[in-house]
Specification:
Blueprint (H helix, E strand, L loop, with lengths): L6 E7 L2 E4 L4 E2 L4 H8 L5 E6 L11 H8 L6 E4 L6 H4 L16 E4 L1
Parallel strand pairs: 1-4, 4-5
Antiparallel strand pairs: 1-2, 2-3, 5-6
């Protein structure tokens, strides 16, 4: 499989990578891990569990930090609170459906 076909998902809680359904936290920060993973993927799908996982909106400061770590595209799932008006239709503001009905937003 070509790296152009790979998007790596990174979930964090309290600024550390989480695994196993957000139950286990590693001593790794997303921005550090992204630097190592850039050669193997076309982009990232990132979730700040502390904010988005509790439906309190996106942590824009965190996403700005991530943006400084890579030039690869960074996406975030918008199926939480900030996409409630689109949730029923399963479409984003441009009318495109995300994978499994998730509304996605590319962060530049």
């Amino acid at each position: 499989m070509s790296r152009k076909q790979i998007i790596i998902a990174l979930d964090t809680a309290r600024e550390k990578i989480t695994i196993h359904g957000w139950r286990k936290r590693l001593a790794l920060r997303a921005e550090d891990v992204m630097l190592q993973l850039v050669p193997f993927c076309a982009g990232f799908l990132c979730t700040d569990v502390d904010r988005e996982g509790t439906m309190t909106g996106a942590n824009l400061d965190w996403f700005r930090k991530l943006r400084g770590a890579t030039q690869h595209p960074i996406n975030r799932c918008r199926r939480h609170q900030d996409a409630s008006r689109d949730r029923c239709a399963g479409r984003n503001r441009h009318g495109r459906r995300g994978r499994n009905g998730n509304v996605q937003n590319r962060l530049r």
